[in-house]
Design goal:
The chain has 245 residues and is an alpha+beta fold. Helices cover 16% and strands 38% of the residues.
Length: 245
């Protein structure tokens, strides 16, 4: 393990007290497509994570309809809403939705990702969440639109997250027309934080992992619990004591 090899010159009796036990968070992303053939003011879709994670930001497809890059440099205002449970059936009803945030961004142009720095949404493995992404200044010069693709529902997924596309939306938000079906063009950026639970431990192994990683111990106490782990399980250290995760 890298954790051990980095500190191999240190005597074992003090190794675990002197070496940093890092906390681990892994970044990831999931992209649908950037190939619009339709446009209006918003989209709804669902996400379902397989691990606990925090949604950090979104990339969207905004610009002018037509050729790649159209509308680059235009000022856009984007709002993102979320709800526990599916968005399907709630795309025209604001009840149960929470505004995650609103951001002013500069369009990178049609079919080119435009980052929207809205995030901080913590989601739990196995739960479904509805997302509504809205271009609040739809129609602003030079004819700015939220660009999407006909068809669906479509599912895009990786090992961490599944995304199901649903509807296109008009303006104003929620009360505007709904268009069936439209695939959101975009990317979700997230961070998944490893925990003893996410490692799949149970019983005694879970107990020891929590003592090593999630109880806040330092110095001799941390040393003791890592030694106990190693006595039982060898050098296959828990997530927080590995650098090769």
């Amino acid at each position: 393990m890298k954790f051990l090899s980095k500190c191999k010159a240190v005597a074992l009796t003090v190794l675990l007290s002197l070496c940093t036990v890092p906390a681990f968070a892994q970044s990831g992303s999931l992209t649908t497509i950037y190939a619009h053939n339709n446009a209006f003011a918003g989209n709804t879709f669902d996400i379902k994570p397989t691990v606990n994670m925090t949604i950090n930001s979104f990339d969207v497809n905004i610009g002018t309809f037509g050729t790649n890059g159209g509308g680059a440099g235009a000022a856009a205002t984007v709002s993102i809403y979320w709800r526990p449970g599916t968005s399907d059936g709630f795309q025209s009803n604001s009840a149960g939705w929470t505004l995650l945030g609103t951001a002013n961004v500069t369009s990178q142009g049609a079919n080119i990702p435009t980052n929207v720095p809205i995030g901080g949404l913590n989601v739990v493995a196995g739960q479904t969440y509805g997302i509504y992404v809205s271009l609040d200044n739809w129609g602003a010069a030079p004819g700015l639109e939220f660009l999407y693709t006909n068809g669906g529902p479509s599912v895009y997924s990786n090992a961490d997250l599944a995304l199901t596309t649903f509807y296109g939306k008009g303006t104003p938000v929620f009360s505007g027309n709904t268009f069936t079906y439209r695939q959101w063009n975009g990317t979700i950026h997230y961070t998944k934080t490893q925990t003893c639970a996410s490692e799949g431990y149970n019983a005694t192994k879970m107990y020891y992992c929590v003592k090593v990683c999630e109880s806040g111990y330092t110095g001799a106490t941390l040393d003791m619990w890592i030694r106990r782990w190693m006595d039982r399980y060898g050098n296959q250290l828990p997530y927080c004591a590995r650098e090769d995760v």
